[in-house]
Design a protein that fits this description.
This protein is an alpha+beta fold and 84 residues long. It folds into two domains: 37 residues, YefM-like fold (3-Layer(aba) Sandwich); 43 residues. Helix content is 63%, strand content 18%. Strands 1-2-3 form a three-stranded mixed beta sheet. A hairpin with a 2-residue loop joins β2 and β3. The termini are far apart.
Length: 84
């Protein structure tokens, strides 16, 4: 992974944009990592991994007896109606 100062990024943006197609580029500001530039393909890959993880969490919740939005609303409405 390539690490560069923000001042260098400003001066040679095109060069580092091309580098980001091959590997993530860490951008430092005041000597501290601040941001990462990466290719669209890598971003989409990471996003797909996150979506799969959240999907697996939702599936686990459903299997453990979690009720969905519609059922929750139905139960709440039932309680409101009972109190009226």
């Amino acid at each position: 992974m390539l690490t560069i100062p923000a001042s260098e990024m400003k001066q040679r943006f095109g060069k580092y944009l091309n580098s980001a197609l091959q590997e993530p580029v860490v951008i430092e500001k005041s000597g501290h990592p601040t941001a990462v530039m990466l290719s669209l393909a890598e971003y989409e890959r990471l996003h797909a991994i996150e979506d799969a993880w959240w999907g697996a969490q939702a599936e686990k919740a459903l299997q453990s007896g979690w009720v969905g939005m519609e059922e929750t609303q139905r139960r709440l409405q039932g309680k409101l109606n009972a109190e009226a």
